[in-house]
Design brief:
By secondary structure, this protein is an alpha/beta fold. Helices cover about 35% and strands about 15% of the residues. The chain is globular, with a radius of gyration of 22 Å. Bound molecules: pyridoxal-5'-phosphate. Pyridoxal-5'-phosphate binds near residues 194, 222 and 242.
Length: about 425
């Protein structure tokens, strides 16, 4: 990859990032949809992968593919080295401390299930959650950071409490202070709400929960690719993210946790590769992270995920964040000027998306009309149905931005929404 991709002398934006040049690294973007150039604005659902990520996976497949840990032959050793190197790259990428360890998963959903189920699966002797304990989950969450906690509460007799947002969709530290008690055993929150773009004050909230003795869980799916402090600087016991939302492959992701916290988790997947010894009636599990990675992992995916982390580092998170913030500000200004349109979290900092509702127009109609113009957005509840019900405005249209999006695409979005409103009203 050319370092000119973020060379300010080539940049079209004040952010030091040149999306025109970067786009050449994303072949999928160079196509027509319904006779128009594709404007891909569905990045909160899935980002596209650049050539260096595709190449890293192809290289592994063509030259090094073998199962890891089990072979003495050269290819197996190379594959094991590649897997270990990917883990080291990703730990550095998220700024893990020396006490933190990274477990490869299929994504955020699996990582959060690993935590929520792992805290009770071991049986009453091991369980972190007992009847009468409390789990606090923010009301901004994707279903992936809610349903596993509903299940954990049901299975253990713990009580699920929701840190509800206000009418503007914001959650407040004072409300968490009022909810937290010596019964709180878990606190889970997102670093950025996928449905609204809201960025909660999660740093202070994690610290508060930690001080109360709870295990703290951060869903970083919508933050890890462009903005997030180093994990070592957060009071975070567990952090989950997905590869496909950070220019990496689908079906990849990670759970990063304090080693002591990971050791509390009973493994979701029992079987090969997660054991030290096995007899017919019992087994001794390996140390973390291996004990949580039963079965053959997606080694090609891990290699691709590490390449995505390298790609982001090469461009620079600050550049990506500034570029996205500029596009979002443009979208917010343009959309807010349209009559009858209400935007969620217009002032959210570091948000990578705009989510809005329009009086008397269903988002699916807006999404369909935008698709006619080659503009890909997402419509619906974005897997955050309770939040939408709480805010009382129904499903939304969501446009979300990545490092390769351009001001021209945002202009097309605004024109397209204006056109949809004319047609539908
Ligand atoms: N959490 C958040 C905030 C998300 O936006 C998403 C996906 O949209 C998830 C969790 C689930 O991620 P995955 O489907 O990659 O497991």
């Amino acid at each position: 990859m050319s370092s000119a991709a973020n060379n300010p002398s080539n940049s079209t934006a004040a952010t030091g990032l040149n999306p025109g040049l970067l786009r050449s690294l994303f072949p999928v973007l160079h196509q027509q949809v319904k006779g128009q150039p594709l404007a891909y604005l569905d990045n909160a659902a899935t980002t596209q992968t650049p050539l260096p990520v595709q190449q890293a996976m192809l290289d592994f497949e063509q030259h090094h593919r073998a199962n890891i840990h089990r072979g003495v032959h050269l290819l197996s050793q190379r594959a094991t080295d590649a897997f270990d190197a990917a883990r080291a790259t990703l730990k550095a990428f998220v700024g893990a401390s020396s006490q933190q360890e990274l477990v490869f998963t299929t994504g955020t959903t699996e990582a959060l299930n690993m935590v929520a189920q792992g805290l009770w699966l071991g049986g009453s002797g091991h369980a972190w959650l007992r009847p009468g304990d409390e789990i606090i989950v923010s009301g901004l969450e994707h279903h992936a950071n809610l349903i596993p906690w509903q299940h954990a509460a049901r299975m253990t007799g713990a009580k699920l409490r929701i840190l509800l947002p206000d009418a503007q969709g914001q959650v407040h530290l004072a409300d968490l202070q009022a909810l937290i008690s010596d019964k709180t055993r878990v606190f889970a929150i997102t670093a950025a709400a996928n449905a609204t773009g809201e960025r909660p004050p999660y740093e202070a909230m994690l610290t508060l929960a930690k001080q109360a003795g709870a295990l703290t869980v951060l869903d970083a799916a919508q933050a890890v690719g462009h903005t997030m402090p180093a994990l070592a600087d957060l009071d975070c016991d567990f952090c989950a993210f997905s590869g496909h939302k950070m220019y990496g492959p689908m079906g990849t992701g990670a759970l990063v946790g304090q080693r002591a916290a990971l050791e509390r988790l009973y493994p979701l997947r029992l079987g090969g590769d997660m054991v030290e010894w096995v007899e017919y009636d019992s087994a001794g599990y390996a140390a973390v992270p291996t004990r949580l990675e039963g079965g053959t992992p997606n080694v090609t995916g891990a290699v691709g995920l590490a390449a995505a982390a390298d790609f982001i580092e090469h461009i620079g998170r600050a550049h990506i964040d500034a570029h996205i913030a500029q596009l979002r500000a443009q979208a917010v200004a343009g959309l807010q000027a349209l009559e009858g349109l209400t935007l969620y979290a217009p002032h959210a900092s570091h948000a990578a998306l705009v989510s809005f509702v329009v009086d008397d127009v269903h988002p699916h109609d807006i999404g369909t009309l935008l698709d006619e113009r080659g503009i890909a957005v997402r419509t619906g509840h974005h897997c955050a149905e309770p939040l939408h019900n709480h805010l009382g405005k129904g499903p939304t249209t969501r446009a979300s931005f990545a490092l390769y999006n351009t001001e021209d695409e945002v202009r097309r979005l605004i024109d397209g929404v204006a056109h949809a409103l004319q047609v539908m009203r």
